[in-house]
Amino acid sequence: MSEPSIFFFEVNERQGVFHRRAFLLGGLAGAGLLTLTGRLAQLQLVEAQRYQKLSAGNQFNYRLVPPPRGLILDRNGVALASNRPNFRLMVIKEKGMDVEATLDDLATLVPIDGSRRARLLKEINNAPRKAPVVVMEDMTWEEFSRINIRAPELPNISADMGEVRVYPFGGAFAHVIGYVAKVSDRDVEAAKKDPTQDQELLHNPGFRIGRQGVEKAFDLDLRGRAGAIKAEVDAQGRVVSLDPAGDIPATPGKEVRLTLDADIQNRALEVMGEESGAIVVMDIRNGDLLAMVSAPSFDANRFVKGLSGAEYRALSEYERKPLLDKAMTGTYPPGSTFKPTVGLAALAAGIDPNIRINCPGSWYYGGRTWRCWQKGGHGAQNMHDAIKNSCDIYFYQTALKIGPDAIATAARGMGFGEIFDIGIPGQKKGIVPDREWKKRAFKRNPANQIWFPGETPSYGIGQGALSVNALQLAVMTARLANGRKALNPRLIKSVGGVEQPSGADVPDLPFSKEHLDYVRGGMAAVANDVRGTAYRQSQLGLGDVQMAGKTGTAQVRSYDKAKSRNSASVQWKLKDHNLFVAFAPFDDPRYAVAVLVEHGGLGGATAGAPRAREVMRVALLKDPEIRARIERPMPLPEAPVETADGVVEGAAPDEPEEGAPPPPEATPTTGQPPQGGHI
């Protein structure tokens, strides 16, 4: 019988396999534990703050707070655009919410008419989830209180206090400052391509962006930087409580200070009354614009809230165009206010100003009879008299002597045909015609590319193709009065406390001092010679402070078949434009003014000069040095002088004596000098 045999090598082999598997599994388990320990260490030590923030994010939420928009001030610190509290009611859209029922509940607490309800239904349905939609702004305190008392019963309803833009002077600065309005879809699309735009801020329901004027040009500076309110929320994102300690304060927008003076600006709009036109006042020393008014104007506060379609149509269709900025955008023929520039061109071309040209009232040239505004004519006129009397015949013939190119060169030297960098858009440079302009303007009509001699006489009196704006007229007057510098206008005084460049940092004028003095002398005669065309309307009544000026009338229709140029009985749109430019004091120029009364009727002295006088008075009286000069006592009259026969000049006459009347003597008739014309 055979004995069983044990093969130990098989046992050892099985044990070896077991040990290898045990070591492998143990290693894997150890690696897993090590990995878990490392990950745990990473979470607890390295990424603790990150997950703490994520955890807090589930509990806390930050609500964006628009920053206060920067103030816009005048040169003296008077607020022209500021902010005021605004109580708002908003609906926060949630998935599955009954919009109709929500609006029904709100209608029991605040007024919601049919048109507003239809608009809100559309806006809420189109809004993304959790996006707030403004239901009502400028709620009264009573309405705001009713909403907050019922807040627990009104899910998805929020009432808060924000800020809204306000313009204290209404329409006085509307064209210069512009206004703010809600962000449109077009604005959002445009902002996506601009990395400087805050996308979240643009979607905030209370946010407004600048439209037109300073509000648009300096929108990014005025916006500031948004802040946030820290709030504790539940699982559905509803606010449970606020955490003021975690709030991020908003940074207000920068302050923009203008060179305008609120008193002068308001007076300029006041004197325009119901008329249409513009008034621009400029500091002759540095180019600062003290007033830039376009009339009629509009209330910018209405645009902040939003105009209805009917309201906007009423403004846009009104024939006097309140939405058009007539100080910069509207262009007009300057009429006789252009004659000082033609005078400078003639002097620069070597014309002797003392040579006289006879003005019989009409002049035949080129198959036409060219007429002067004075039917009987002015007689023999030199340049000084022609400026004083605004003699058309003199400037017809003088323009022909020097030609259109010389006139255009002088016009550009005085600021016509130029767009000035005043910080806001909207200027139109007008037209300063010359031979090269004619070639460009009539590219498709070669027959009209030639400058015809018959075009020059009209050019000499500020008519024809020439067109300018009121700002350019003020610049021309300021440069002429300054007598040395080619001043540029300045509207923005500082942004965020940083002073902007002065308008006096410019080259000298391309005219000699003698020529400028001569033309200024003619303008002084316009306002201060009893036979000047604006004598009676240019007396300031401020002691020895005198104003120099120039009247102008720009035709808007032909008078060939008209019986009279008197436009008192014609339609408003067919009346002549009425212009006046001036500077004062004449002996020490400080301020220049340009007045344009659209369809104001015949004669710059009838509508333009009285308004320029009133605005100039305000500017002069606000100047401390000029005011001190005005208030200084006048010198006493000289003592009476005794003549050789013992008669003292100026003494009271002797007592009347009784007796027969003296024999009659031939008394020459005398005429009363005119007290001012109308051109």
Q: Please state the CA-atom Rg, rounded to the nearest Å.
A: 39 Å
Topology-level CATH name of the largest domain: Beta-lactamase
- Alpha carbon gap, first and last residue: 156 Å
Which class best fits the helix and strand makeup?
A: alpha+beta
Report the mean per-residue pLDDT as an integer. Answer: 85
Per DSSP, what share of the residues sits in E-state strands of 2 or more residues?
15-25%
Identify the CATH class of the largest domain: Alpha Beta
CATH architecture of the largest domain: 3-Layer(aba) Sandwich
CATH superfamily of the largest domain: DD-peptidase/beta-lactamase superfamily
Number of helices: 23
Main sheet makeup? 7 strands, mixed
Shape: elongated
Write down the domain tally. 3
Organism: Caulobacter flavus
InterPro entries: Beta-lactam/transpept (IPR050515), Beta-lactam/transpept-like (IPR012338), PBP_dimer (IPR005311), PBP_dimer_sf (IPR036138), PCN-bd_Tpept (IPR001460), Penicillin-binding_protein_2 (IPR017790)
Membrane topology: Single-pass membrane protein
GO molecular function: penicillin binding; peptidoglycan L,D-transpeptidase activity; serine-type D-Ala-D-Ala carboxypeptidase activity
